[in-house]
Amino acid sequence: MCVGLGAVATTFIAGVFAVRKGLAAPIGSVTQMGTIRLGKRTEGRAPLVKDFVPLADLNDIVFGGWDIFEDNCYESAMHAGVLDDRLLEQIKPEMAAIKPWKAVFDRQYVKRLDGPNVKKGKNKRDLAEQLREDIRNFKKEHNLSRLVMIWCGSTEIFLTETPAHQSLEAFEQGLEANDPSIPSSMIYTYAALMEGVPYANGAPNLSVDVPVMMELAQKKQVPICGKDFKTGQTLIKTVIAPGLKARLLGVKGWYSTNILGNRDGEVLDDPESFKTKEESKKSVLDYILQPDLYPALYKDICHVVRINYYPPRGDNKEGWDNIDLVGWLGYPMQLKINFLCRDSILAAPIVLDLVIFLDLAKRAGWGGIQEWLSFFFKSPMHAKGLYPEHDLFIQSMKLKNTLRYLKGEDLITHLGAEYYD
Prior knowledge:
The protein is α/β, with parallel strands linked by helices. The chain folds into 2 domains: 290 residues, Rossmann fold; 109 residues, Dihydrodipicolinate Reductase, domain 2 (2-Layer Sandwich). It has 16 helices and 11 strands. The strands form 2 sheets. A 7-stranded parallel β-sheet has the order 3-2-1-4-5-6-11, with helices on both faces. Strand 5, helix 10 and strand 6 form a beta-alpha-beta unit. The longest helix is centred in the last third of the chain and has 21 residues. The chain is globular and about 65 Å long.
């Protein structure tokens, strides 16, 4: 169940249909194309991830979701302009059959959007109950055994924790009282967890990483993860920054700017929504470079992030990075990166992998925060008292070691005899 059936969700759904029909390959998907090394290198065991752990098959997935616009998935995908018309025509019947349910939406939290397909209720508690009814109806209608919910909607305005987020009792009182600190995304999270449905937060919204949601997820043994899909510029940042740190090259400044013309770009043109995204994107370097441990190299780094709405670019965003480096004896260098990427093309395989891995976690009986899925997020959730891991390579190792652990295989530590590790 996708919250938001816009560019990201329809690209994900269309991709699954296309792969099912043999029209395209699931490039970028760890669950579909990734391998996992088992045992010593000399053993030569490296099966596909999907052959190693019992993952849901693509043919068994049924799609549904909410959106503030009434367009079916085919119409929405055509409007988004991400995928080629010829591909969409080949999966038109399947896409057109998916029509959005009325959404819980309030312009107070996303000021640049509005649409007619919106639920009405006496208060936020009533809206949450309507969402729970949607979930139950979807499960019954399609005779489904398991469900997963993933947020593919817009970035909401910047919010911080309040007393309403501290306990289930306080939160439910807040729902009754229409507490303004409970945004639409949090109502979806609550509905999912109350129905025992795993939940992934694909935006930087304050929806699941508050005490009440973490407590509820643990209590009901429901897997949760987030936040903000790691695509584009931040993906590159989590590749480059660990390399610079590993070589102990200093960084004086890192200037990042983006141009983006899709609905996400329009939403982020609002300063309050941009603040939410900025916090998600800027935290990456602080944790990777560890200026507290390496003050001479990274303490005074000037890190600037900009996002500019530029309609002609559509979903094909462009990220520019200028990095001012310091090398041996303090000599300056520069690194410049220009990533011409496709936002939804990068996000779609992340959505697929999160859906499939969350379903696996649920069947394994793992509740609460799934830190092993940090690989997919800009601002990954983490256990209380710990810092989040942002290094893409450490995240990848953690993900695969978790799968090895699940199947009783030895964890890969790269320790051991020289020829047998």
